[in-house]
Write a structure and sequence with these properties.
- The protein has 78 residues and is mainly alpha-helical.
- The protein is built from 5 helices and 2 strands; from the N terminus they run βααααβα.
- Strands 1-2 form a two-stranded antiparallel ribbon.
- The longest helix has 11 residues.
- The model has no long low-confidence stretch (mean pLDDT 90).
Length: 78
Amino acid sequence: MGAITIIDFSPLWKTMKEKGVSQYRLLQSGIDNKTLDGLKKNNNITLLTLEKLCNIVECTPNDIVKFLPNEKDKKEEK
């Protein structure tokens, strides 16, 4: 069984801070409250949402999301 990867949106918050983009700007640009809340909780998003975020923040997907191996799954593979 393949390892499950954990999605981490912490790069988004760092990139937004560096570029001076507020959460309010995301809301004004079409990212809804539910999606914003999901990003804070590292929930899955669609590729369309990822594209919107890249356009709003003027960055690449690597500036928004990173994928982390699930430590529990790594231990079970050994």
